[in-house]
Please model this.
Amino acid sequence: MKIVVLDGYTLNPGDITWEGLEALGDVTVYDRTKPEDIVTRIKDAEVVYTNKTPLTRATLEACGNIRFIGVLATGYNIVDTEAAKEKEIMVANIPTYGTAAVSQFAIALLLELCHHVGEHSDAVKNGEWTNNPDWCFWKYPLVELAGKTMGIIGFGRIGQDTGKIAQALGMQVLAYDEYPRPELETDTCHYADLDTLLAKSDVISLHCPLFPSTEGIINKETIAKMKQGVMIINDSRGPLIVEEDLRDALNSGKVAGAAVDVVSTEPIQMDNPLLQAKNVIITPHIAWAPKESRQRLMDIAVDNLKCYLEGKPKNIVNS
Ligand code: NAD
Model:
């Protein structure tokens, strides 16, 4: 059985192994694949794995041997699942693998906004402490989180996990979700409607999926309802934020700081409005990427194929 991985580099830049897949067939791994090379590379394959390389109807029609597509991610919008279904190709995704990593990263972004550890360390190495007249100095206002309120928009797996860490730091949590689960409420964690969350939160962290109902949920109207000096965290999806509106709110000081791991177009374009904003931290969509989390993703990707071959397919998104 011929298995082709079209864009394996971000999952496995060399620190984990493809052995699990190699035990199931004849595997060719490409680090990345340009659109014009897709068909040539997969036309003889029965199994194709993709992370972000699109598999369109035209591609699937040109590659008649494919029986199974494994998406190396949770989101599978890069595959034309309807076309796959018509051609009796099963498409499997990885529904969850990175909850701990993504919630840890949301808190890392928040702590960086509160303490600017990296920039203070750089300042010390650049001699600023050595040449400082006082025994210590700081370059930004430092923020203590205990007693403050974190508003979490989207209280699913990652939202809840982020909320637990926030509570461990002494924060109160206000959660907004389309499907509230009252059993998750505690003395320090309550559901709220969106307007209440916006008005009462010192920090707002986004953990809802990107749906038409959530696209642009952070915009100039919702920002106007927030506290002066609020901090905003986003390691969910870039288009949840209207970036021009967040830039303006950061530059006016209404929003004291924002830290985002995701932006509207990735990789980020140099004309992204957030690159013109004050007090913003931007990371290159790495919340998911600790080795532990990628290993879990790899294990599930292998298991998805194994289950399919045993006639017990799982994590199929187009059945
Ligand atoms: P989940 O499905 O467990 O939770 C999502 C929650 O959002 C659910 O409780 C759902 O009810 C809620 N929701 C849906 N629509 C809503 C709406 N209109 N308003 C408010 N809440 C709404 O998903 P998860 O595993 O917690 O993942 C959350 C998101 O994290 C993913 O959708 C993805 O965008 C993002 N993510 C980012 C990375 C990264 O590397 N930065 C990695 C993994 C996931």
Observations:
- DSSP finds eleven helices and twelve strands in the chain.
- The pocket of nicotinamide-adenine-dinucleotide is lined by residues 74, 96, 98-99, 102, 153-159, 176-179, 207-211, 213-214, 235-237, 261-262, 285, 287-288 (CB under 6 Å).
